[in-house]
Amino acid sequence: MKVLLLHAFPLDERMWEAQRPALDGHEVIAPRLYGRGKTMDGWAQSIAAETDGELAVVGASMGGYCALALARLAPERVGGLLLLGARPDADSAERRAGRADTIDLIRAEGADGLWRMMLPKVFHDEAAADERLLYRDADGLVGAVEAIRDREDSTDVARSFSGPLRFAVGEFDPFVSASELGGFDALELGDAGHLANIERPKEFNELLGEFLQRV
Fold first, then answer.
1. Are 29 and 2 in contact (CB under 8 A)?
2. Residues 6+ apart with CB under 8 A from 60
3. Do 44 and 66 touch, CB atoms closer than 8 A?
């Protein structure tokens, strides 16, 4: 099976290293998302153009938004969706304002300032964080924030998706909670923040294995 891993902001594709052992025997595709255009739909088009066949898509946060855009663009290509720390709706006015603050921070302090700001929000246990996974190009980071901010509402995409779809949310994720995902299959991963695949790799890999059996 082809498994497409779409990474979170502000990290890159290396954030999935702890999942590699659980994906032994599958064809794993883990592209870098930065620099693929100005919109989430453009990113999805780029991913679709460089892959083929049916994909089991695993997306974390920003990668989850790209996964939903791919499901909108080419639903016949997406066999299943496992979305970590992502939500199907578009940004609210409050969240859009927060994106503007993030862009200002990146422009003023670069990737290092962004890391300092996001570290306690992304990781419940900061000891699990690895700064080497940070994507450091400021222009690429700003472009990613803009693509996240301007993404389309994908609620209808998620509701009409015909394959297995599961949302996974860390217990201490400050950006989305399982209770906000009413009507969807949403699982809370205990004692984890936004990126449970890094903080709780054993538990996430078990969830990943169960998901792939359903695709």
1. yes
2. 6, 7, 8, 15, 83, 84, 85, 86, 195, 197
3. yes
- Domain 2-214, what fold? Rossmann fold (3.40.50)
Burial of 98 (0-12, 13-18, 19+ CB in 10 A): middle
Across the beta sheet with 165-170, the strand order is 27-29, 2-6, 55-60, 78-84, 165-170, 186-189
* Residue 157 structure tokens: 């995409």
User: Beta strand 55-60 with 2-6: parallel, antiparallel or unpaired?
Assistant: parallel
| C-alpha span between 56 and 54 (Å, rounded) | 7
Structural Rg of the chain based on CA atoms: 16
**Reduced to 3 DSSP states, what percent helix, strand and coil does the chain have, rounded to the nearest 5?**
50, 15, 35
CA 177, 180, 184: angle at the middle one, nearest 5? 105
Q: Is 158 exposed, middle or buried (0-12, 13-18, 19+ CB in 10 A)?
A: buried
Q: What is the pLDDT of residue 204?
A: 98
Could you give the angle at the alpha carbon of 66 between the alpha carbons of 214 and 182, nearest 5°?
60
> Which pair of structure tokens corresponds to residue 129?
């964080």
Where in the chain are the domains?
Answer: 2-214
Q: Which two tokens stand for residue 56?
A: 């089991």
* Residue 99 confidence (pLDDT): 97
- Interval 56-107: pLDDT, tens: 999 999 999 999 999 999 999 999 999 999 999 999 999 999 999 999 999 9
What is the rounded distance in angstroms from the CA atom of residue 214 to the CA atom of residue 206? 13
